[in-house]
């Protein structure tokens, strides 16, 4: 990218932050994130940040901040970004999640400029499942607004071929987006969480996340229980039990088997490329 054209965040360097942070009387302050969950949309990003928040050394931003991908936010500069962060104790790590970062080509460079040593978490699931989940989310949003929605098959297939113009398909071409990130960050800075495994059995995935972040092992089996009604694991934190919002874990539409087969075939090569990039495989169809 042309350096001249890249808008700069306000004039503070994150390593040598010059503005004096406001320290609350209880000793907490706002810190720039040392960890960012960059995506992928519908990968299980909410589950991941909620599960990570179970750790006492982690403070999580409640909302998706969209600092690096939305121009109107980015122009406000790093002081604004900092103001979006939760109050935390100095020894705690701050994490924010904005799933759209993964698929936005300008974001890796911007994050790198803020902090080249930042730790990135990327949660992925079977790309076909992710497309169906993406469709389901848009379907419900449109339903709420009384807007027209198309059947999924008509979005997935055009003139008998997979419709490359469907945005949700592009978001599932993980290798393309990963290539952008690897231009700025070494693979060791990006931990890929297996989103399908996080659904099936969250603890082992969260233990790997703890290790990657060099956190003291703390998350344990008592933090999770399976809720049969929801059909997913829910969280237990200091005796308080809670499941994710109803919008997480929705039923997906039925897709004609022939279309599903086409989709699996379509993702075969891109998946292989992704496995080569990250040096590991995933159990995707
Ligand atoms: P579905 O609603 O399609 O099943 P995101 O938070 O990135 O939008 O991802 C949403 C997905 O998180 C859900 O997609 C669901 O499958 C997955 N998920 C993972 N663990 C979950 C949990 N414990 N409870 C609910 N959803 C979970």
From TrEMBL:
Residues 33-270 form the Sulfotransferase domain. SUPFAM superfamilies: P-loop containing nucleoside triphosphate hydrolases. It comes from the Eukaryota. GO terms for molecular function: [heparan sulfate]-glucosamine 3-sulfotransferase activity. 3'-phosphoadenylyl sulfate binds at residues 42-46, 125, 133, 233, 248-252. GO terms for cellular component: Golgi lumen. The keyword Transcription regulation does not apply. PANTHER family: HEPARAN SULFATE GLUCOSAMINE 3-O-SULFOTRANSFERASE 1, HEPARAN SULFATE SULFOTRANSFERASE. Sulfotransferase that utilizes 3'-phospho-5'-adenylyl sulfate (PAPS) to catalyze the transfer of a sulfo group to position 3 of glucosamine residues in heparan. Catalyzes the rate limiting step in the biosynthesis of heparan sulfate (HSact). This modification is a crucial step in the biosynthesis of anticoagulant heparan sulfate as it completes the structure of the antithrombin pentasaccharide binding site. This is Sulfotransferase. The lineage of its organism: Eukaryota, Metazoa, Chordata, Craniata, Vertebrata.
